[in-house]
Amino acid sequence: MIKKVLVIGMIFVAALASGCASSPKEDVPWSIRIAAPKHYEVWVEEMFLEKTGERSWRQPIGSVGCCWRGERGPSGKGAGVEPFPELIFLHWFSFAEQEYYTKLIEVPPDLQERMRAPAPYKTQVDVRSGPRHSMVIGLAPGGTVVVWIMNQIGNEIEVMRMQASEGPGDPSDFTERTKEYLKRHGDYLKEHGIPTDGW
Q1: Could you tell me if residue 13 is inside a domain?
Q2: For the chain, is the Cβ count within 10 Å smaller at the N or the C terminus?
Q3: What gap in Å lies between CA 83 and CA 159, rounded to an integer?
Q4: How confident is the model at residue 69 (pLDDT cuts 50, 70, 90)?
Q5: How many CB atoms lie within 10 A of CB 34?
Q6: pLDDT at 25 over 80
Q7: In the chain, at which residue ranges do the beta strands (DSSP E only) sit?
Q8: What is the C-alpha to C-alpha distance for residues 57 and 85, in angstroms, rounded to an integer?
Q9: Cα dihedral across residues 59, 60, 63, 67: positive or negative
């Protein structure tokens, strides 16, 4: 009888423990990064992410000047995200245009599952396969917003293209940073201008 009570007690305690245990952490190292075309730097004032009913948080970004295309892009500043957000709000300043933009990105409900689909990527010794764990959000002149998913530069897939709205802000807040920006890129802007489409 004592053994039976002990066994029932152990089962009860085990059931309680499993019920109280937190759900396991996401198995994919999700990340979100911000990119901008070369010579067309931006300053991301605010980046807010939200998973409804779970978490809402701010991700500091700051200055972004790379990389839209080529051997280094798309890639940029960012961090890992947990949980994977449903909403992403961005407010940024374009140095070339002296303009602020805002955009609320509603992440498609099926995007995370699409990112889970195995995609090939190269290592130093072979070709492997894994989820496209990184979302890269590109911010271009004219308020163009492009979203790619990838696990390595070269296998990115464009999944969204949107138009941002002009946002609030005073360009004089960036007077000193704009001077530095123009020292580095002013000659390029004079020669090539500021394309607002074709990104």
Answers
A1: no
A2: N
A3: 20
A4: confident
A5: 23
A6: no
A7: 31-35, 42-51, 55-58, 62-64, 77-80, 87-94, 99-106, 119-122, 127-130, 134-140, 144-150, 157-163, 165-166
A8: 10
A9: negative
Alpha-carbon gap, residue 45 to 87, rounded angstroms = 17
Question: Cis (ω within 30 of 0) for the bond into 171?
Answer: no
In angstroms, rounded to a whole number, what is the distance separating the alpha carbons of residues 91 and 27?
Answer: 30
Residue 9 lies in a domain: no
Cα dihedral 94, 99, 102, 108 sign: negative
Show the domain range for 96: 31-192
**Residue 151 near residue 30 (C-beta atoms within 8 A):** no
How many domains would you assign to the chain? 1
pLDDT in tens, 109-152: 999 999 999 988 888 888 888 999 999 999 999 999 999 999 99
Name residue, tokens 């245009």. Answer: 97
Take residue 8 and report the two structure tokens written for it: 């029932």
11 belongs to a structural domain: no
